Amino acid sequence: MGSPSGPPYDPDDPDRARRERDTEPIPRIDPDDGPGFGAGPGYGAGPSLSGGAAFGDGPGYAGEGRSGRAWARDPEGYPEQPISEEELAGLRVDASGMAPRRVLPLEDEPSSLVARYLFPTERYRGEWKRHWIHLTTPIIVGIAATFVLGYLAGFLAGRDVGALTTIAVLLWFAVMGWVAWRVADWYYDRFILTNKRVMVVNGIITRRVAMMPLVRVTDMKYEQTPTGRALNYGTFVLESAGQEQALREVKNLPNPNELYLRVVEEMYEPQAVEARLGKEADEAKADDGA
To answer: How many Cβ atoms from other residues are within 10 Å of residue 236's Cβ?
Structure first.
């Protein structure tokens, strides 16, 4: 309480509490058992620095805070963890770290032939023509027909047999027309990959479009003969829940190992694909700006 000789008691006086605190006697601090540094609440077992809410097991820095995860917690669950630069670097190179692990060349936009078969919500990943080995048979037939029918036409021309010479020439044109048809059919034959499905589009007059959703692919493999390993092509085999489907065997696809990895990555690591492609797009924009 304040001094008896002070002013009369006034409950509304704002300075009353300060005067009473200033006039309280100062206790003697004993270094042995006083409250300052002993077992009192200052630095001992009290709540300030021990098991209280400040630095103990309370909600401030305990529990989740000690595990370093409190900053990442979302009221509705854990957010998706970002993909590190090291992980992206591993996606850009193969296991040995020596060569690019992507199928090249790869266009950013689908061709007009493919764009008509894509719907707006799916993301285009690439399109591939079959390996040139697919044209082996028509090329061999065309070369053989040229030599045989050319020799025959020359031989018949010396014998003054005009009708047979004309037939030989027409036959050569027919064979070469068939070869041109096969080459055009090869050009319009595409294997297409998006983030939702794989497709094969072929045919010139009668168009055939076969597709399989990636979520329904239960097994995928590719096969390479010794010639395929030497020339870098192979045959893809896709299985879908044990059912018969049109898109089961795709022959003579180029770069089968890289293409296999790209399809598997799209099936199991779609977020990594989006992150890598987004980074590459940003780097391309930066290079254009520079």
So the answer is: 22
